[in-house]
Amino acid sequence: MPEMASSRALDTFPRLLSYHAQVRGDRPAMREKDLGIWQTWTWGEVAGHVGALACGLAELGFKRGDNLAVIGDNRPRLYMTMAAVQCLGGVPVPLYQDAVANEMLFVLQDAGIRFALVEDQEQVDKLLELQEQMPQLAHVVYDDPRGMRHYNQPFIHDIRELMAMGRIHNQNHPDFLADEIALGAADDIGVMLYTSGTTGKPKGVCLTHNAFISAARGGVEFDRLTADEDILSYLPMAWVGDHLFSFAQAMLAGFTINCPESGETVMTDLREIGPTYYFAPPRVFENLLTQVMIRMEDASALKQRMFRYFMAVARRSGAEILDGKPVSFADRLLYTLGNFFIYGPLKNVLGMSRIRVAYTAGAAIGPDLFRFYRSIGINLKQLYGQTETCAYVCLQPDGEIKFDSVGKPAPGVEVKISGNGEILVKGPMLLKGYYKRPDATAEAIDADGYFMTGDAGFFDDDGHLKIIDRAKDVGKLANGAMYAPNYIENKLKFFQHVKEAVVFGDRRDRVCAFINIDIGAVGNWAERRGIAYSGYTDLAAKQEVYGLIQECVEKVNAELVSEDTLADSQVHRFLILHKELDPDDDELTRTRKVRRGFVAEKYALLIEALYAGRKSQFIETQVKFEDGRTGKVAADLQIRDVKTYPAGRLAA
Questions:
Q1: From the CA atom positions of the chain, what is the Rg in Å?
Q2: Among 331, 363, 378, where does a domain finish?
Q3: Residues 203-214: pLDDT tens digits?
Q4: Which of 34, 115, 463, 490 has its CA 20 to 30 A from that of 162?
Q5: pLDDT in tens, 294-322
Q6: Nearest to residue 538, comparing CAs of 522, 549, 551, 554?
Q7: Rounded Cα distance, 234 and 73, in Å
């Protein structure tokens, strides 16, 4: 890491951008695939565009302290606008691009948004829909001009026109931009990210330049990242993980971010770029594994046998070889053959051949899923953090990877466990406060300056932190045994046929579960067996599908019985939901975390049926479509009892 990283003169993102423009001005900073062709912007070009955008915003009346909404997929000019806003002492507020208009309304009103930069016509239309409820909205700027030809409202601007205005402004006021950047301070708010609102209304988390630069510096030095890295930037810009990896770390280290053409082309674009540095939440790694398993079902019998044989070798020795631990000569030789025939081609298909470091965070990843990727030679690691900590609390050191931990406290971070088991953290990466919520800020930070994460965990003998669950979700069964729902759900979701799982059991005599099947994996499985179906609801109700899922649940029970503290948490009964849990129906957050309380309340009738011993239950549920229309889905759901194992002995 260059000496500049610790310089007091480079303590804001605009100053870091100016530095990179000077020292590596002709090196690629950003790429975007458009109409099948990769477009590249150098650091010098990015700095020029950022300057033009900043001066253009100033011409429109944007002032220090103003908030600007950023809404859209990952696009270079959206990242550039975030830096431009910071140049003027303003605060970018990224929103989830797939949120419907009414979901955006709370954040837009709470943040007092007067300016918005959006990707395309779809996002412009959402803001126009909310216009009457947002009289303060003064200017909307769009990036993609397609479909915008007949939008002639005076407050709607093409980003190219804004940049042209900015260049003229810069000619007339040549010292303006430099003076504004000079006014910036490390303790200024650099970005405001809203929490996912799992348990209530989202809160605006105010994070300073210093907080994110500290987190970025710690990660860059920890994993020895350089300006030569390539990262694929495809996760929502409103998510703290994307802001750390694709903005803060890229701005600090000077590496290249690559924006895919669309959500549908991510896998193709991933293979073309071949990133060296990769970040994805567990659901992405789950989906990738599901795709692999689906493809293997369609492979020849010989390929299937080879895959199973060499994956057994990988499970036995792959992770140990990656960590540099001793492995027998025979296994090392077999692993080399497996790398030639299976692991290497598999990594190439996944676009992960060049990866040096891959991270996952955002939710706990199942140990089995974690082991799969490390066993084929991908240096996948977990990090632990939250929006309020710039996604930076714990990291896993190379050679010290534990599948059931999130690593050790990251450089510069203090972590301790409170008397009730809650994880408390302190460090320069903490939030400055919640926007307009001093009450919530006071509740979140204790008298000693520790942020109360709301997660329950403990340190093992080697100093690695283990997360049990959200502190509020950890409970006890009726017999007093510990109950950790997220842990059980992750085990269920390891199976490619299970897309989502929600378990219940707190203060009850047994654990029961809702299952969402993966329509792709189960659909492929059904078609290969000649099982006809008309859609998700029909497929989910098939007896054969219930049998398939029952096998998965019973395998999880066989694993749980060997874990002393959770042996009593085996799943006794389950049902397959008639619809997929959906953020549009408020059942998931936009980061696809289950809103457990909401789901329990919405489907209380089904929970009652599970615990009442019924064999089936009729339910009718209202659903919301992407265009805002509503409809109903009704079904008579089966409920299955599954095999459990006596605690205290391993399952046969």
A1: 25
A2: 378
A3: 999 999 999 999
A4: 34
A5: 888 888 999 999 999 999 999 999 999 99
A6: 522
A7: 7
